[in-house]
Structure formats: structure tokens, C-alpha cells
Design goal:
The structure is a homodimer. Chain A is of the alpha/beta class. Chain A has seven helices and 27 strands.
């Protein structure tokens, strides 16, 4: 719905004069998150080289190609024998490598290696440390049991066993297991290409020296790094700059090569709202404008030719919080991950005096001590402040109308740097993907 | 000390016939870890571009270059006025940008932007949503307070404030704060260059199709990925292969271009021990051989021209555990991180029947539920098995002589994928670096 057909209203009511997607003003965060996820699809699948796949998200079930081990094998480096009694016997050492079909005669031994084939009638494998080789014969220093140091075919993994399900994040262990089956590539979801546009007035590239009326763009490097740490690619990073006449063209060009655009700055309400003006100019369909969170400014979202645009405040505190609660879920969902991070409980170690107002997110530092999470409210909580970025690895999530926070109380926390595998209950079924506007968000995709 | 001068002994006693570094056999893990860390130095410092520094470790204190904001600024986009009373007044809107020295007259207002300069005598800034502009005049819809929406110079960060200390890992927030001060580069420790050598018999590149007596090398891709996820670079990955005559030369060439060599395979005890033979052939000085852990095989360590060599079992389970408890601390320490990861407490959700023996590490899956860690012993705990790699994100650390593990009991756990910032208590002072052989390991560098 074009902006020009709308009147700005400070309420919750959707506007749907033309049967189009409801545009809502000043909505609850949960509703905003749900709208964002419903507006996008998990990206298409692609095959990537196995050793470059760490952190990517598995898009198709991967199974064991064959039994592992594929046949009976030695579990240690040593000697295979078929005899029942070995102590006090001198075994003749065969010189050949083990080949399929080889049988040991009584009183014969042959050298075998860990993970290597053993003669078909091997009874046991005796490690080197219990053996002494002299002149082509080998003697053993202890008696052995049937099957000792032997691995049966498929004892580790049976052929056909599922070793990765869609939605699993590729880690070093999976890479190793897939390498053991000779998989050269792995099917994963494409990484989202994210554009970042700094729209604020007087914002200059952070590499430049600002004049008195200018401010270095610290939001773009923040968002670029966050997008990358969340598995996305910062495919285009731009600053609107002084020359605004070409802005519409530059933004539509940018949108042509990305999956998600994050705009920072220019999101204050009212007639000077540059972000909304820009969205209107390029013909984007607005989803919502204003979310009841603090810090927040006036975050909004729109669709342009199926690309999602998320507008965040230019104030650093609000930009960071807005990224984590609105943009990061989309970055995760696009690549096949559950969008929303389950909260943890933690004990807050200091106090925070403000109270009331909408749902509030405090930049915080979380640490685990034994089995307890402790979280500290960082200094510099004003929306304009960068100071709270230092050591920030968590957000404390305070409900609307919360009382002042007292040291020692339990709070709900979003950890920002915890591996997905540790924070999501393990999933048994695929839950990613879905049709926009018709997606049923399964259990672990519900906003929290 | 060359291997040839030593006799293999199954005890704890160091050998120091020539006043050289003690070589110890079958030592406790804590002693092995301490020896490894004492044998290396944190690597030299280098400057890297700010936007490429995420995950790197800060090597020099970084301070705020100036006050932030550098001067008094607007906290919102809106209008600056110097008058005390604004409601019911029509202010003449100045057209010029704010420049240093600008003063507002009574009844005058000027447009200001978030983070931008304000006229010197600004009393307050009124946001756009409380303003209406008509014909070069602006009127405001509410009264304001002194200093509202104004940021004083240095209110966020005072010039000279420390924003990063040596040992801090660079995250998105620090990148943003440093960008705000126009730092183009950041001083960090060099990333360790790690070589990986698969020494086992019959081991072939995992990309190839194995013959019956051959096994795909699943250890190299595991170690490569683990090294990279721990911040190192897998600078050389080799397989000893069938052609062993050139092996000594190949290994010394490899050592010439790396900081740490991890050898996997060929570490069983006794006269056939290829790894020890190789170390002897190239003239490496042995540090220890055999560590009392399970799974473990016979891990060992040596020094060659100040490069550390760590030998791990070729059995997958032992290779993974050996990496995490012996090699990963070195990879971390070389780049300026605390080497040892504090353990957490978790409730184990299933049982494990084996008991006794040396200190034992179980491959496990840890998850956080609210404020409780739960950990599951993964299937496939045999040293030879890869199956336990699937979903492995933790090691359960059982003490020597432990009883069978019962579901519901509390265990000590090493989390493998948790961000450093969440697992180390925040450090107030530099603790990295030091002289090998004479290093005092500070509190958080003690093996645990």
C-alpha cells in the first residue's frame, strides 16, 4: 500500500481499505516479527564444497552412503590371527598386504592397520605393544579374546542412517563424517544477501574525517558484521549521502541484487520521515510502521518486488536492538534456521532504575558461572549511545510496564553469541521454508 | 632429547640425564596442558583492517580518540531553539546548516539532525513529530525542558577511555565503536598457522575412492575445520601416503611455514610407533609421550626449532578429544586467548555404563533450557567411532576412576561452541604472552 494513501495514526488498528496486506502502526514486537517471517521464504538450495560448509544450514537429508566400517576391520594397528590360543606360540608373519578373500592358516599372522581390512577368518587382532617380531615370526605377550580389537561392518554407522537433517547447522563433526563417506559437496540453503543503507542526514563513511555537522557512520560496520556473524552476506553497503536525487535509482538497483535491505536512519515519525518517503517513492508495499519497543525509534518494514525492507533507527542503541529483534530473525530464517532465539533465564548483577513504558531491551553482558548465567546491565543505555556496545553479548528483555530492575533478580535474556546447537532444542523434523502469507509457523518458529 | 637416547617406560618419572627439558611418559592431562602452553609464545602483533577483524584478539589497548559526541549534539532530528517558552510561539526557521559559532536569536529555530552540531546557545531540541513547519516558520505542539534531546560532549565516551583491552575478542560492537572514532585498522595477534599431517597406514585423501585396505582420511577435514573455528589457519594439510621416503623432508618443509603441527595417526606405543620415529628422524625434542586420558591412544608432543608438534591418535574419537584438550588450548593461546575453557555444570540426561580407568571425555550434546544446561551422552563412544561426532557440541569430563554415569547426575562439561565472551569471566588486565620455560600462568590460564 503506497504511503501517500495512508494517514499516520498512533494506534494499533490495521488499514486495509483495498483488501491489501494490513499496514499496522505501533504494533507489538511479536506481531512485527510474525509479519516479517511470513513475508519471506527460506532461500533456494545449493551445493557447496564440503570443507567450505561450516556454519551453513543443511537443506536436504544426508545419509550414510554405506556401512561404516564397510567391512570387518582392525581397531588397532597390530597383527591378525585366527588361532584361539596365542600365548607361547610363534606365528609365521605373512608378508603380503591383506586383500579381500585372504584366509589365515593355523600359526599364521599378518600385519593389519587401524581401519584396514582383516583376513576373513580373523579371530582377533593383537596390538603392537603386545607383540614381538623376530626373523619373520611374531610372538605375543598375552592371551586374547574372540573379536578383540575388531570392528564389525556397520558397527559405527549403518548404510542409510540419517547423519544430517534439514535445518542442522554444519559443524566440524558433520564435515568429518561426510568426508568419511566421500561426499565432496553438501546441500545447503543459500546465504542471504543483505543490503545496508545509511539514510541519516549528515552521515558520512566512517573512514572519512567528519566536518562539524557530520557524523561517522558507525551503523553500517555494525550491521555488516552482525549480518556476517549471523550467516548472511553484506552484499551492498551504501550511504545516502548529500546527493539524494539519485537515491531512488540507487536503492532499486541495490534491491535488484539482494534478498533483504536494512535501512538505518531517517525513521522518526512525521512528515520529515525520510525512510517512509523513500519507500513510497520506490513503490514499496508497507507492512508496518512503529513497533512498541524501547529503544526503537520507529522501525518499519515494507516489501518491494518480494524483497523485504526493514527500517531501523539511526540511533546506535536502537539500531543494534532493532537488528537483533527484527532483522536477525529474517537473516536466520532465509538460510533455513529457526528465526527466533529461545530466551534463557539469568541473574542480573546490577540495577536499572527506569521503569514502565513499552517492552524494553537492555544491552548487557552475560557470563556463565558453573551452571548459572549472570548478566550485567552495561553502562550507556541511552538510545544514542555506543558505549553499551562494548562487551555486549546479550539483551535483557523487560516486559512492558516493568518495575525498576533490582540486582539479584531473575531476568529473561537473549544471548547473542551462543551457537545455535546449544540454544535450540534438537529438531527431529524439517520446519523451515513455507509460502509467504500462508506459512504456519511451527513450534520453534514462534516469536518469543 | 632424541628418541634414540630414551627407553620407553610406563611411568610418570621425567628423564633429564642431560639437563634438558624433562620428557615424561603417561602423564596427567593437566601436566601435559601446562607443558604445551609453556612451550609456546603468543604470536606477534599485526594491524588488520577493522572490518576484517571479527573474532580476532586485541593485542594493544584501544582508547577513544576524542570525546563522543565530540561536541554538544542533537539527540533527535528536529529543531533547535534557545527560548525558554516554545508553546504558542511561531519560530522563524533559519535556512543555513549549523556551523561552529552559530548562535540562535530569540524566536529563531534551526533544523538539526541526530548526532549533528547544534547552535552554541541551544536550550533544547524539539523532534519533528512535535513540530509543524509553515512558510519558513515552525510551531511546536508541546512545552520542553532545558537540555531535552541534547547530548553533551563526551556523554557517551570521554576521550582516552579504554574501549578494548588486550585479550578481548573483536565483535561487531567493538568494530562499530572503533568505526565511530575512525580507526581504519586494529592491532591484533597474528592467527596461528597450523599444519595437519595424517600419518596412519592406508589413509587416503577423503575425496578418493578407497581400496579394501584403505581408509578415507576423515581426521584432516575435522582438524582443519576445528582449527579454523578456533581462529587458526589450516596452512598445510598433508597425508603421509604410501611414499614415505620423502616424509622427513616434507615434514620439515611443512614445519618451516607453520606455528603448530598436528599429527594424527601412528601414535600407538611400541617399536612400530611411526609418529615417534618421525619426530626422532627430524631431530625434534620430545616433551612428553602418553597422557592419561580416554579416549586418547598415546598422544605426544615435541618441539622442532621452536615449533610445537602435537601427535594425536588416528582413531576418530581420540583424535577429536585430543584436539580439544591438547591442541585447541595451544591454538587459542597462540592468538592471545586464555588457553583453557572453564567447565560448566550440567545435568546428564542419559546413562553411561563404563567406569574406572583414567580421566575420560565423552562426546556429548549440550543444550540450555531456561537456566539449566542438559547434556546427553551421544551414541558411539568407542574410540574408533565417528557416529558420536553427529550433534557433538560438548565434552563430558569424568574424573579418573569415575563410577558409571547415571541419568540425572551433575557432570562437568566443556562446551565446544560457546562464544568466548560468555564463558570467560571478563578480564581486567592483560594475561597473554610470556617467555617459554619461564611463563607464570595467570589465573585464567590454569588447566582445568
Amino acid at each position: 500500500m503506497p504511503l501517500s494513501q495512508l494517514h499516520f495514526r498512533q494506534n494499533d488498528v490495521g488499514v486495509n481499505d483495498e483488501g491489501m496486506r494490513d499496514l499496522r502502526f505501533d504494533i507489538e514486537l511479536v506481531e512485527a516479527q510474525q509479519q516479517l517471517i511470513q513475508a519471506v521464504n527460506t532461500l533456494e538450495r545449493e551445493w557447496v564444497p564440503l570443507e567450505e560448509a561450516r556454519g551453513r544450514v543443511v537443506a536436504e537429508e544426508v545419509t550414510a552412503r554405506h556401512d561404516l566400517p564397510p567391512s570387518r576391520q582392525a581397531a588397532v594397528d597390530g597383527f591378525a590371527v585366527s588361532d584361539e590360543k596365542v600365548l607361547g606360540v610363534k606365528f609365521r608373519l605373512l608378508e603380503a598386504n591383506v586383500s579381500p578373500g585372504l584366509m589365515l592358516g593355523a600359526g599364521e599372522a599378518c600385519t593389519v592397520v587401524t581401519g584396514g581390512l582383516v583376513p576373513e577368518n580373523t579371530r582377533t587382532v593383537i596390538p603392537h605393544e603386545n607383540a614381538e617380531v623376530v626373523d619373520g615370526y611374531v610372538a605375543f605377550s598375552r592371551e586374547v579374546k574372540l573379536g578383540e580389537n575388531l570392528k564389525s561392518a556397520g558397527e559405527d554407522l549403518r548404510g542409510g542412517t540419517v547423519i544430517a537433517t534439514p535445518g542442522a547447522q554444519v559443524d566440524s563433526g558433520l564435515i568429518s563424517v561426510m568426508a568419511a563417506f566421500g561426499y565432496h559437496q553438501i546441500p545447503v540453503y543459500r546465504r542471504p544477501r543483505v543490503g545496508i543503507l545509511s539514510l541519516g542526514q549528515g552521515i558520512i563513511p566512517w573512514q572519512n574525517e567528519p566536518l562539524p555537522h557530520q557524523v561517522r557512520d558507525s551503523n553500517s560496520p555494525l550491521l555488516k558484521s552482525l549480518v556476517e556473524s549471523d550467516g548472511g552476506m553484506a552484499a551492498a553497503v551504501e550511504i545516502a549521502g548529500e546527493e539524494r536525487s539519485s537515491l531512488n535509482r540507487r536503492v532499486t538497483e541495490m534491491l535488484g541484487k539482494i534478498d533483504l535491505l536494512i535501512i538505518t536512519g531517517g525513521t522518526h515519525a512525521g512528515e520529515y520521515d525520510e525512510a517512509r518517503q523513500l519507500l513510497d517513492n520506490i513503490g514499496a508495499e508497507m507492512l508496518f510502521w512503529g513497533v512498541k519497543i524501547r529503544p526503537g525509534g520507529h522501525p518499519g518494514a515494507a516489501l518491494w518486488d518480494s524483497r523485504l525492507i526493514i527500517c531501523l533507527s539511526g540511533n546506535p542503541g536502537a539500531c543494534m536492538v532493532g537488528y537483533h529483534v527484527l532483522a536477525a530473525p529474517v537473516v536466520r530464517y532465509l538460510q533455513g534456521l529457526p528465526p527466533f532465539i529461545p530466551h534463557i533465564k539469568a541473574e542480573v548483577t546490577n540495577s536499572f532504575n527506569k521503569a514502565g513504558g513499552p517492552r524494553r531491551f537492555l544491552r548487557a553482558h552475560a557470563e556463565i558461572h558453573g551452571n548459572t548465567w549472570k548478566v550485567e546491565v552495561l553502562p550507556g543505555q541511552k538510545s544514542s549511545m555506543l558505549r553499551s556496545y562494548i562487551n555486549c553479548n546479550a539483551l535483557i528483555d523487560l516486559p512492558a510496564g516493568h518495575p525498576p530492575l533490582e540486582a539479584g533478580s531473575e531476568v529473561s535474556v537473549i544471548l547473542l553469541n551462543l551457537a545455535h546447537s546449544a540454544i535450540y532444542p534438537r529438531r527431529k523434523e524439517q520446519t523451515t521454508g513455507g509460502d509467504p502469507g500462508n506459512v504456519r509457523l511451527p513450534g520453534d518458529h514462534q516469536p518469543v
